[in-house]
Amino acid sequence: MLRGHVFIVNEETLPIHLNYMFVGTSAGGKDSNIGLLSDMLRVKEQDFIFFYIEGREDKKGRFFGIFRATDNIVYHLKGLDANSPNLPYIYNKKKKIREPLKLIYRKRINPYKVYPAGVFEWIALDKLPTYAKELLWTLIYRKMKGIRGNTMLLPWEVDRLISLIENENQDGHLIDSNFTFNQSKYIIGKGNITRTHNIGNPVSLSLTEIKKNETFFQAYILQNLNLFNNSFLPQIFGKKIIWIGNEVFAGSGMQKIDILTIEKVDETTYLYRIIELKHPKSLMNVSFAPMQLEYYISWAREDMGGHILGGKKFNIKPILVALTREFNSIPQNIITEITNLNSISTNPEIYELDFSLNVNKVL
Question: Which of 150, 174, 202 is the last residue of a domain?
Answer without folding.
Answer: 202
